[in-house]
């Protein structure tokens, strides 16, 4: 993240705005001194604020409007107003031209020299905006038609090289596949051998797989071999699964690529998961957690002991949530240990252990070793078996804060799941601070969001009258006269026609108060505990999702699809 020249303005703006506490301010100052970072970059790296939040506050303090370039459809003729070399050197983007002049997005809007130069050269007024470095970099890619064209060009050159009897540029092919995936915010890359002629390249973007390009089968094996070399895997092994990791640098940002290779009938398939710095720059509020739930989770992890559980299916963001909490707890006066399978992100100042079954390093054996390492806070990647559950509970009872995950559908069913693992109800009641359940849904792209009026009866047929009244304020009695405003994305160039961009979480937080503890010790069913929690203020994931539908963050189809009603 680039910083503009006057760092003191950034510090003053962030502190006076009230978006950063004195404690977090001090943490950022310490990181600045340790790693020689710009202050704003330290704030983002510590996940105190996102890059967008930082830039919005600073733009307001400087008196410049903030622009979200991801919502803008920038025409090629507007980009052409400024030479690409000038735009890249100064991190600026012309994004609109109208009667008011040329609208210019800048990472550093205080650089009057370049904006004045453009104004004189173009002979028209220049209106300056402040934008995030990420948005500017992504928009600059449009000068060359984007990495999509670059990837197609690379594949075309590789095919031509094969046809001419030469060596294809496999290094460039692999680089461009990963770079294009990164630029498109893909979480995973799939390379699948399809038939005798082609393999297919697919990206998972916002949880959905998209076909991107065809890879000639003549290139497939060479691409796989190159990936194996980068991930330090056996290049001559084709019959068994292999896992590895690649460190890849894109635009001065380190991207960890987790590689999984498996043999299928048509050949070897590879899936690469992209884990970048920007994937970590979240706060709980960025993830979509509402203020009331934020307070509950804050109270739970601020306790020096006990357990905080995150539940949900694979891929729902549990690990991201726990890492976000861990980053907030990461201070020099505590010893934080983790046992994970796999370690997804390197966290500075945190001692992370990778499960290795070949060396008999399991969750259970790792936890026993951690206990002798004088930990304050422990993250257990997943509680899978009775032995791990018992050790984790004992650690939570003996003065340690334990963060972990369980695969259950909601917060209430985590309790019988623990009982199934052999944990006594009184131990669950006395050690678990709170249980968080979550799902991920796609966000409507705000640049093409449109509203539509639907009959209240149509909504009620899908979610029931109780929720229709609770969330939208429409009762069955007056339903025939009422319409409800919902939102959708129309689809545009910026969101690639999907109508969505990014994802947001739906949450429910079950707090272990005295009444719920009593219900657990009476061994009540999960449904009874969930009803009791709701009566005591717990908002369900469905209710949380519907509130996000109401304000236009996501669609009803996304919420109902995630909660399986």
Protein described:
By secondary structure, the chain is an alpha/beta fold. It folds into four domains: 7-140, GMP Synthetase, Chain A, domain 3; 145-278, Beta-Lactamase, CATH 3.30.450; 282-440 and 503-538, P-loop containing nucleotide triphosphate hydrolases (Rossmann fold); 446-489, no CATH class. It is 41% helix and 24% strand. The protein has 23 helices and 18 strands. Strand 1 (92-98) and strand 2 form a beta hairpin. The longest helix has 18 residues, at 146-163. The model has no long low-confidence stretch (mean pLDDT 86).
What topology emerges from the helices and strands here?
Layout: H1 7-17, H2 22-35, H3 39-45, H4 51-62, H5 76-79, H6 84-90, E1 92-98, E2 101-106, H7 112-122, E3 126-130, H8 133-140, H9 146-163, H10 170-183, E4 186-193, E5 198-205, E6 208-216, H11 217-230, E7 242-250, E8 253-264, E9 267-276, H12 291-301, E10 306-311, H13 318-329, E11 336-340, E12 351-354, H14 363-371, E13 377-380, H15 386-397, E14 401-406, H16 414-420, H17 425-431, E15 432-444, E16 449-455, H18 456-463, H19 465-472, E17 483-489, E18 500-511, H20 514-521, H21 526-535, H22 541-550, H23 556-563
Parallel strand pairs: 2-3, 10-14, 10-15, 11-12, 11-13, 13-14
Antiparallel strand pairs: 1-2, 4-5, 4-9, 5-6, 7-8, 8-9, 15-18, 16-17
Helix pairs in contact: 1-4, 2-3, 9-10, 10-11, 14-15, 17-20, 18-19, 20-21, 22-23
């Amino acid at each position: 993240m680039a910083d503009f020249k006057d760092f003191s303005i950034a510090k003053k703006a962030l502190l006076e705005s009230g978006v950063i506490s004195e404690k977090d301010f001090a943490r950022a100052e310490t990181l600045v001194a340790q790693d020689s970072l710009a202050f704003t970059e330290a704030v983002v790296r510590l996940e105190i604020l996102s890059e967008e939040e930082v830039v919005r506050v600073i733009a307001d303090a400087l008196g410049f409007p903030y622009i979200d370039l991801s919502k803008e459809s920038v025409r090629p003729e507007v980009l052409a107003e400024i030479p690409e070399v000038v735009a890249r050197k100064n991190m600026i983007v012309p994004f609109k031209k109208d009667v008011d002049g040329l609208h210019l997005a800048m990472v550093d809007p205080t650089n009057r020299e370049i904006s004045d130069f453009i104004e004189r050269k173009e002979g028209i007024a220049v209106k300056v905006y402040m934008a995030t470095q990420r948005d500017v970099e992504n928009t600059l890619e449009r000068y060359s038609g984007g990495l999509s064209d670059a990837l197609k060009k690379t594949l075309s050159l590789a095919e031509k090289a094969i046809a001419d009897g030469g060596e294809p540029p496999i290094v460039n092919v692999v680089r461009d596949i990963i770079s294009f995936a990164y630029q498109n915010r893909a979480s995973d890359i799939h390379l699948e051998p399809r038939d005798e002629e082609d393999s297919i390249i697919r990206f998972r973007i916002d949880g959905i797989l998209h076909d991107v390009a065809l890879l000639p089968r003549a290139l497939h094996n060479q691409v796989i071999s190159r990936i194996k070399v980068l991930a330090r895997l056996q290049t001559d092994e084709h019959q068994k699964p292999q896992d590895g990791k690649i460190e890849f640098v894109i635009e001065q940002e380190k991207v960890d690529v987790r590689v999984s290779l498996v043999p299928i009938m048509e050949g070897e398939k590879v899936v690469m998961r992209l884990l970048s710095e920007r994937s970590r720059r979240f706060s709980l509020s960025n993830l979509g957690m509402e203020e009331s739930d934020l307070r509950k989770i804050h109270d739970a992890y601020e306790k020096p002991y006990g357990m905080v559980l995150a539940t949900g299916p694979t891929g729902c963001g549990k690990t991201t949530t726990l890492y976000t909490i861990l980053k907030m707890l990461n201070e020099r006066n505590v010893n934080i240990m983790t046992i994970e399978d796999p370690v997804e992100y390197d966290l500075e100042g945190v001692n992370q252990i990778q499960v290795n079954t070949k060396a008999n390093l399991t969750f259970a054996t790792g936890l026993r070793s951690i206990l002798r390492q004088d930990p304050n806070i422990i993250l257990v990647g997943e509680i899978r078996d009775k032995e791990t559950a018992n050790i984790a509970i004992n650690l939570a009872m003996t003065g340690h804060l334990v963060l972990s995950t369980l695969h259950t559908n909601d917060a209430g069913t985590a309790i019988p799941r623990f009982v199934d693992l052999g944990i006594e109800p009184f131990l669950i009641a006395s050690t678990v601070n709170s249980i968080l359940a979550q799902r991920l849904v796609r966000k409507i792209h705000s640049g093409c969001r449109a509203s539509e009026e639907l009959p209240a009866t149509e909504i009620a047929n899908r979610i029931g009258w109780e929720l229709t009244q609770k969330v939208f304020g429409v009762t069955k009695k007056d339903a025939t006269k009422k319409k409800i405003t919902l939102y959708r994305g129309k689809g545009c160039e910026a969101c690639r026609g999907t109508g969505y961009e990014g994802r947001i979480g739906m949450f429910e937080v079950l707090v272990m108060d005295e009444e719920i503890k009593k219900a657990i010790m009476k061994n009540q069913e999960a449904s009874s505990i969930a009803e009791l929690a709701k009566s005591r203020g717990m908002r369900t994931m469905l209710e949380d999702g519907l509130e996000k539908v109401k304000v236009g963050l996501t669609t009803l189809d996304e919420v109902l699809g995630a909660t399986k009603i």
